[in-house]
Amino acid sequence: MKPVKALQRKPLGLGQQPALLIVDVVNGFTDPACPLGTEADSVVAANITLMKAFHERGLPVFLTTVIYRNEQQARVFRDRLPALELLTPESDWVKFDDRLPMADSDIVIEKTHASAFHGTTLSAKLAEVGVDSLVVTGLTTSGCVRATAVDGLQNGYRIVVPREAVGDRNHNAHDANLYDLNAKYADVLTVNEVIAQLL
User: Fold this and answer.
1) Which listed site, 8, 64, 85, 148, has its alpha carbon 20 to 30 Å from 183?
2) What are the pLDDT digits (tens) for 97-125?
3) How far lies 167's CA from each of 5, 10, 16, 57, in Å?
4) What is the rounded (10 degree) CA torsion for 102, 103, 106, 109?
């Protein structure tokens, strides 16, 4: 079998007006007691560092959570993954991990599918504040983070994924998806490298 030939790629980094987009760092994904969750302390810690850096610079911070408000929303997705039925408006699982240093200026986006762009107000909100690039973090690397990063690129944003600030229930899936994201859709950097690019 011939070795795989790597695609030529050009790192783009962040633009002039980046935003932090934290995907689903909610109790249902950071608490192993939830069927959807996993141990994510290091991921939460990395997101805390990034939130503080963005807040200190007055840069926009967006956070997503998954909430199902009626039986029809994302019906096929929920039929495939029955544990998603736990994500109801009254559930603690949809609340943000209380370790995150949320500010009044942070913008919350509710979603029902993997991508933070699909069927949400995210695109409009990003346009309102003139965002040109996104630092995409959160849970899980192989699911909602990947879907959001790919859609971000397809919506015309430069995408950066900080490797310590994303996580997955499956370490192999995590590593494989970071490799693939870096090859085609995003710059995968360290948290310190991301902060160094902030103006």
Assistant:
1) 64
2) 999 999 999 999 999 999 999 999 999 99
3) 27, 25, 27, 25
4) 40
Q: Which of 130, 116, 193 is nearest to 161 (CA)?
A: 193
The residue-averaged pLDDT of 28-46 equals 97
**Whether the predicted model's global pTM rises above the 0.90 cut:** yes
Provide the domain limits for residue 106: 18-197
pLDDT above 80: residue 134: yes
Report the first-to-last Cα separation within the chain, whole angstroms.
Answer: 46
10 within some domain: no
Is residue 1 in a domain?
no
CATH number at residue 70: 3.40.50.850
Percent of the chain with pLDDT over 70: 100
Annotation says 144 is catalytic: yes
Residue 4 is assigned to a structural domain of this protein: no
Evaluate whether residue 9 is within a structural domain: no
Alpha helix (H) ranges present in the chain? Answer: 27-30, 41-56, 75-80, 122-128, 146-154, 171-184, 191-197
How many domains does the structure of the chain reveal?
1
Q: Find the catalytic residue in 50, 144, 147, 189.
A: 144
